[in-house]
Amino acid sequence: MLLTIAQKKKIMILPYFLIFPAFLLIIIFKIYPIFSTVIDGFRNNNTWTFVVYKRVFADKVFWNSLWITIKINLVMIPFQVIVSFMLALLVNAMVKGIGVFRTIYYLPVTISLTVGVTLWNMMFNPNNGIINSLLSIFSIPAQGFLIDKNQALWSIVVIASWKGCGYWMMFILAGIKNIDTTIYESAHLDGANWFTQLFRITVPMVKKILLFVFVANTTANVLLFVPMQLVTLGGPEGSTNVLMYEAYKSAFRYADRPRAAVMVTTLLLLIIIICIGQFKLLNEKDDTTIQGR
Known about the structure:
Layout: H1 5-40, E1 43-44, E2 47-48, H2 51-57, H3 60-91, H4 98-110, H5 113-123, H6 130-137, H7 152-177, H8 181-189, H9 194-205, H10 207-222, H11 226-232, H12 243-252, H13 257-282
Antiparallel strand pairs: 1-2
């Protein structure tokens, strides 16, 4: 049965009509706040100016917070992706009871970040925490963890990784499951060992998934500040005062919205730069073959 031109137009418009409500919500709750924040950084007393940027860029607290943000993410992002990849390889094994391990690894994801941070704060307690109790068995002196300026930032890396690795593991596991098993069987027949199959088959085949995990993980971790807000309050001695937490304090504690807008805009630019770098490093380019006439 042939369709009329009007019916064809209706069918072509229908998908756009169905996604319009979701697109409208994205504009209202995602796109508009970003543009509003960027604009707020250029406004001071209802005038357009760079005064706020000059004031923020002259502040040592800003640069210290930016450096802490970069430092923690230089460690946390690759660490979480590597651990998530290793967990995905482990739970991909077809052995009896593997579903139990998948549940255990994913369980932290189901726990609220606030609850998780509170639990870890209790375990990291330097006086009666369970971790120092375990260390005392091996005659290791009690550690300060979240109250030690040299350990607080890395303790937060542990907390965030415990919470997030199971989540990223599921994406990588889905990518591994999507690889045709006959490829591994052929490689095995050709004499390829486990490491050869890992780096010549598994990693290249899940490269797009790894790229997504890197980008999404970067966005989540650069904006992380809940552990700092709940436990360390940016301390001790400013060692965990990441830029997102400083922006939060500027907006809601000091009521300095333009200063917070400049910091959030800086974080946005930082995320874009990191993500572009990740795309350049991980994104595969299609091979082109030049043929002569």
